[in-house]
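Problem statement: downstream parser choked on a complex file, so we are re-checking the raw output for the iron/sulfur cluster run. The parser issue turned out to be on our end (a line-ending mismatch), but while we're here, posting the original submission so the record is complete.
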Amino acid sequence: MSTAIARDADDPAALVRRYAVQGPRYTSYPTALNFSEAFTEQHYLRFLAEAHNSPSPLSLYVHIPFCSSLCYYCACNKVISKDPQASRRYLNYLQRELQMLSQRVGLSRRVTQLHFGGGTPNYLDKAEMTELVHQLASHFNLDDSAEREFSIELDPRCVDADYLALLKGLGFNRVSFGVQDTNAEVQRAINRLQSVEMITELIALARQFNFRSISVDLIYGLPLQTVSSFSETLDSLIAMAPDRIALYHYAHMPARFKWQKSMDRYVMPDSEEKLRIFALAGRRLRAAGYCHIGMDHFVKPDDELARYQRQGRLQRNFQGYSTCHSADVLAMGVSAISSLNSCYVQNHKSLEDYYRALDQGHLPVARGLELTAEDQLRRYIIMQLACNLRLNFSELRSRYQVNFQSKFADLLVPLQTFARDGVVTLDEEALRVTDSGRLLLRNICMLFDDSLPSHQGAYSNTL
Ligand code: SF4
């Protein structure tokens, strides 16, 4: 392949020069920066009433914001606390919220997907975790079939065999461990110490408990990381053989997340080194038998995500890539974002505001967005490209009655430039992202995002 992108992939400096811009990660479209406070609880109640009548399954997301210590790279909505009462109080409010939501959507919809994220969901002790799952089971129709996907993000530093056994008993069948990097120097720089031995043991335990899927999150772009240090991290990970590996790009944005300044005393890999690290990881993980999914996920070939991508059915949501049994994700907890058919709704980001709204008998809605028909069309295109790496024009026509070439006539020139560079192929039938074009998925999606000009400077670098 003698395309520009293939040449540039071996010359990261050229790739960065040509394509490094700021842009969204597209966990949603339109992105959260477009949400507005003009969207209120009244709007949400209307969408919930519609959701009540839907025959399709439902997804639930529960946000547990607490963490025991601060990781310096963190960009999540979290509360650092060592107060055991903090989670007790939070659970009381969470239960009020889930009861209010359950009254509105009813018990008829089968919950086939449940995800606990954070913060640190395993900040909850065993009794609290049991109580929360019991509350969900009492107020929603939780699926007990083998097809259900009940997943939880775990901090390896505060989970043991008993906790894993309990999670299995409570119905979780997927676990995801935050590893980030196994190098001790990198771990010290990001304030997150966890030994390879401990992670290896946890993964072996999770396998013993027969969790259907074991995932690991890694991050590239952290301080002190080099191609050589990350190669060792990959050696450890490949030996542990998790079913899925998510390899996230760290974007250093200390102006927005001030604690990230704590890492400024260390050498940070520049964009070119980050590209080399990502390219190395792609090569090593593919050689170890993993399939590359979308932008940044690697999974074993028999994993559902690989199957869904082959079938063109993969989806993306705030929790990453998904087989998304349902169009409706009902989210609860501070800062959580729900996605119901044609709207997004975000809860208050501060605990005080979240508690106050519930004390007043309201759903804790802070802002949201009702999608227009144009938003839905563009969301479909962006999600097809980001997840399935292709946009089929006849499917687009039958879903949205839109002719791609006429509707996006102004994009044909930039798309042809991408095509000449080997990033995409474009013919009568489809727009397809090439294998080497995956690196630029965010750049490709940005062509179809018509809200970008109003958010200059708010996003991280694509490379
Ligand atoms: S455990 Fe996760 S959410 Fe908590 S501080 Fe670390 S990165 Fe942030």
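For whoever reads this later: The CA atoms of residues 329 and 339 lie 5 Å apart.
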